[in-house]
């Protein structure tokens, strides 16, 4: 028996009271907006606080939706954020992944290597040494250094005073030493030259579509250790997380206005004065405004360059937005036995070997994508193994650039559909070949999101 579909996000509604002036307005009810709102309410008393969200539900990139009787999710795991959940008193029924963090397949022509990356830094170190005994000393040294650096990162204070800042070089020397180091620079420092070992280590940069030569060593180490320490997903659908936060925010006195888009951040005499909603001529006044939307849209369009110092505008010109993706969400029939296919990991990843992330990122920078049968990086996630709902899988493929996706969608829908189908089939074939034999015979519903889909839902013109 599969369970009935009830999305928590649909239980929420606006509680906007139309106050004359708010102490704080937050633009966007994604995870950043909701956590900012909850932290603010926890640390202030009786402040009038409003979140404005253009969609009719909270969550932004992190949500779930129903299509033809199947529930699809847009995200797949939480890294170790339990301290934050406890701090904000967010109570969620979470599944903690024990054992392995990732099943990883690396394809080199006809040769296929498979790795099961365990949770926990110690287990991972042991596992790597078993797989690459000739590199044991280098692995031990790299992992010990990484664990130490991560501990130092976690000790840093977000709101540090001058005294704290002066102590950073003594309390966090590894963080300081790595400020300008890339992850490939860190692997070089420990002489990690074995291409297969390097490919496994680079898992933690390539899963976000960034090659190790461009990823910060601190970020990559943080991603690796926080995901491997403890890793979770809800037993329910993924929208439960933001919906629970939104509910708490309202219960604690915050207001949310869903289905309204902020068109302008009102600036008077160099100070923020409130926001202007699309389709309304009266601004909503506020003492402070936090934006959690695409920073280029927020600064160029909502604030306006005329209100910004030229040095700041120059900085905006240098921002490269993160990569976008194609996601293939599939609803499958009851005949397929996903339980038996060893898929219950936060991530199942298949890619071609070392150098793939670089090539794919170059394709993204050139404004397109570089996926081919000889060059790919694809994740397969199987949420229904946890939720107990009808069989679903999601195939996530990054990096894709926006290219012409929005243009096709708006001006040549047949071309848009054809391209969607072409890439959908490409990734379904990969998932079928390496993870789910016979997959295409079991597809009942296919829902493909392109960079244009992400642009529409997020409000970010470059997608996700
Ligand atoms: C495919 C994909 C998979 C991912 N998987 C994971 C994962 O498994 N684990 C993980 O930790 N992270 C994952 N991430 C990243 C994570 O989802 C995001 O980092 C996070 O959700 C971002 O939250 P946010 O609040 O900063 O932004 P957003 O989620 O973008 O929220 C911004 C909100 O602002 C709203 N908005 C935009 N413009 C306006 C406007 N003008 N007026 C009013 N509202 C506006 C949007 O509708 C949106 O709700 C994934 C991201 C993607 C794209």
Written description of the protein model:
With 464 residues, this protein is α+β, with helices and mostly antiparallel strands. The protein folds into three domains: 8-61 and 238-317, FAD/NAD(P)-binding domain, CATH 3.50.50.60; 120-229, no CATH class; 321-458, no CATH class. The chain contains 18 helices and 17 strands. The chain has helices at 31-43, 82-87, 121-131, 136-155, 162-171, 173-177, 183-189, 195-201, 203-206, 217-229, 240-251, 295-304, 310-317, 356-365, 384-387, 405-411, 413-434, 451-458; strands at residues 21-27, 49-52, 64-67, 70-73, 94-96, 100-108, 111-118, 232-234, 255-257, 262-268, 271-277, 284-291, 324-332, 347-352, 377-381, 392-400, 443-449. It has a seven-stranded mixed beta sheet. Strands 9-2-1-12-11-10 form a six-stranded mixed beta sheet, sandwiched between helices. A two-stranded antiparallel sheet has the order 3-4. Helix 1 (31-43) packs parallel to helix 11 and helix 4 packs across helix 10. The longest helix has 22 residues, at 413-434. The mean pLDDT is 95. Bound molecules: flavin-adenine dinucleotide (FAD). Flavin-adenine dinucleotide (FAD) binds at residues 27-33, 52-55, 60-62, 74-78, 261-262, 292-293, 325, 327, 396, 458-459, 464.
